[in-house]
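Re: the request from the purification team.
They wanted to know what the chain is likely to look like in 3D before they choose a buffer screen. I agreed to run a prediction and write the result into the notebook, where they can find it.
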Amino acid sequence: MSADATIYVKMEQNPKVKHPRILLSDVCEIWCSDTEKLNQCKKITLSVEQEGIPNRHLYSSLDVIERIQREVKNAEITILGKDDMIVSYVPDEPTNMWLQWIKAGVVCLIIFFGSAFAIMTFNRDVDVTTVFARFYQLATGRQSSGFTVLEIGYSIGMAVGILIFYNHFSKRKKWNDPTPLEVEMRQYESNVCDTIVANAERSKQDMPAKSGVRKSRAKC
């Protein structure tokens, strides 16, 4: 085997695996010009989980390097991407479509009424009704009935603006950009991963170190 071939490993932050035997190739992108070394890396087993029981592990880039060097001799390793990754074993579970639809309906109702309440309190605080009434009187010289073209246009414009802003119903898009809601969800997921990593590192520091034993994997 060539000793100067470099193994490139790109770690993801939060990969999920559905089968109990978790290989390095399941959670990382691996490339090497030496085919034999590449195949050896892809067959490296990170952990074997108990089937059907979800679990989660934290691996650092040092853990990955140690596993590769243990199996592949004379390997030069370059880690790309994240420094830590949270590998989650999530087994397939039978899905109840009716239950999923009920959950989605409950979430939609909560979002609908919550948004309506927020819009009403906002309009009440800034007194939009009075502003529209005065503007209508200045423009037409007549008293507003509270149900004029201003209120109708405002209501329609708000609904259309929300649909365009979240961009979920547009099929003809030039770019498949994430919606603001998706951006917030990814930001939340990133914050959760950072917190899990920080808690795991703190747990390592609090645990008494055993002589001759290196903790290469921490559960979180």
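For the purification team: Confidence is low (pLDDT under 50) at residues 209-220.
Please add any questions underneath this entry.
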